[in-house]
Design a protein that fits this description.
The chain has about 475 residues and is α/β, with parallel strands linked by helices. It is built from 17 helices and 11 strands.
């Protein structure tokens, strides 16, 4: 049966199937759209491949089959199926959701509704949609029994005793400064994490290899039909990719004997762009504290009570992370925070930094107060703060004119404090945009709000616990 994508004809989005093959390590996640006349689209099957198969501990009939671990894997697979569906749901964004396996329990429905409504906030804004309270999730299943503790992936420190990081951890690496700061912090705390990434980016692989740590590269292939639907008029836009990656890494950790998944999302990620007439829209919602808190809680409740999902950098601002990265020189020729390197489609920058996107602009500004100028210019290949054509771009980062860009960048107060620090620096104050700030913008700002020091101190809620937080505070202060 032929089926053509027509958003107006679509009534519902359907979760059709989920499968995991322990022999090959392949996950298959199935989805479909259903028209008002009952006609269904071809099944959209996403495939994820986790290295290390065969996973005999979760393969029924094998000699070392572990029923408790198999149940945890099944729960993690169920959660991944629901979260990863956001990539496909957005093509039509219907109000009705169907699940082939039956309705959801109340806790799962509430969590998944939050992921779709908040994680697709920018997508909804750009496409003129209202998703909050409009997506109808099928509910009615009984509450799931509490997940047991599984004794997952506890590290054994050399010589016995305890250590600040007691878990065998998968640490997500994205090729940028944040994950590299986390990796080196974990190393300093006595951990030997497995550096983990999803996809085939050569840049990320080069950074991962540069760490000298064990590596795990997970394959992910989106359903090819999705790209056909895009050509036929499907809606498109930003998705909460960190939520999807988090669910993938939890499943991978269970299978590979790790008890912790570590991301590198900082305090600043919890704050979005303030849009006049709309309110706050957070491009990086799934990097924020609300997602981390709720995802960690549902994993502990439904997958394994002792599983550790945490963002190592949560208590720190972008500027604090930039200061910490400036203390590392090992990655200067390898890292890049420019997201154009990682787009699925479209032109990639010829160098590691395009110099034209908000992420490049912000990272340059954030590093400048903490890094010798020649070193920073060597990394980027140009001086972005001496380019008058970027004035409007920096005004948006400063939140002086326009709103914070829809990118993973720091708060406006961080950008203003960084610019004020440069205005006082003989090395930077004559550069075009720094001089412009000092003469035309800084006089109208409260000097007390332009101090760097308060923004470098740990702040806010986090999931690290007391011992790990104190060890990390000492490391950052060293």
């Amino acid at each position: 049966m032929s089926w053509t994508f027509d958003r107006a004809a679509i009534r519902a989005f359907r979760f059709t199937s989920k499968r995991f093959d322990p022999a090959s390590g392949e996950v298959a996640l199935g989805y479909a759209f259903v028209n008002h006349d009952g006609a269904g689209s071809p099944e959209l099957v996403e495939r994820i491949t986790i290295p290390g198969a065969p996973f005999t501990a979760v393969q029924p009939g094998s000699a070392d089959f572990d029923p408790a671990k198999a149940a945890a894997v099944e729960a993690a697979l169920r959660l991944l199926h629901l979260v990863a569906g956001v990539s496909y749901y957005k093509a039509a964004a219907p109000t009705v959701i169907e699940c082939a396996e039956g309705p959801l329990d109340a806790a799962t429905a509430a969590f998944i509704a939050s992921v779709y409504e908040n994680g697709l906030g920018e997508f909804a804004y750009r496409n003129g949609l209202e998703l909050r309270g409009h997506i109808v999730w099928p509910q009615g299943a009984a509450a799931r029994p509490p997940a047991p503790a599984l004794g997952l992936g506890r590290a054994s420190p050399p010589g016995g005793g305890s250590q600040p990081w007691p878990f065998r951890s998968l640490v997500a690496i994205g090729g940028g400064k944040d994950s590299l700061v986390s990796i080196e912090a974990l190393r300093a705390l006595g951990a030997t994490p497995t550096v983990t990434w999803i996809g085939s980016s050569p840049l990320i692989r080069a950074c991962a290899e540069r760490t000298g740590l064990p590596m795990l590269n997970i394959g992910r292939a989106l359903a090819p039909e999705l790209f056909v639907f895009n050509r036929e008029g499907a809606l498109n836009g930003h998705i909460p990719v960190t939520a999807v990656n988090s669910a993938i890494l939890v499943l991978a950790a269970l299978l590979t004997g790790h008890g912790s998944v570590v991301f590198s999302n900082e305090h600043s990620a919890s704050y979005g762009s303030l849009i006049p007439g709309t309110g706050e829209v957070n491009h990086q919602w799934s990097k924020g504290w609300a997602f981390e808190r709720d995802f960690a809680a549902i994993v502990r409740a439904q997958v394994a009570a002792d599983f550790d999902y945490v963002s190592l950098l949560r208590p720190f601002s972008e500027l604090a992370v930039a200061r910490q990265f400036a203390r590392l020189e090992h990655y200067d020729a390898h890292f890049s925070s420019c997201n154009r390197n990682f787009h699925l489609l479209g032109e990639k920058p010829s160098q590691r930094w395009c110099g034209a996107c908000p992420k490049c602009h912000f990272v340059f500004l954030a590093l400048a107060p903490f890094m010798p100028k020649p070193r920073l210019l060597g990394i980027f290949g140009r001086n972005l703060l001496d380019d008058p054509s970027l004035a409007a771009a920096y005004d948006a980062l400063l939140e002086i004119a326009g709103h914070k860009p829809f990118e993973c960048v720091g708060e406006g107060r961080e950008s203003r404090a960084a610019m004020a620090a440069l205005a006082a620096s003989p090395a930077w104050r004559e550069d075009a945009l720094v001089a412009r700030f000092a003469t035309t913008q800084q006089p109208a700002l409260d000097p007390a709000t332009l101090r760097l020091e308060p923004l470098l101190a740990p702040q806010g809620a986090h999931g690290l616990g007391t011992a790990r937080m104190e060890a990390l505070r000492a490391h950052f202060g060293a």
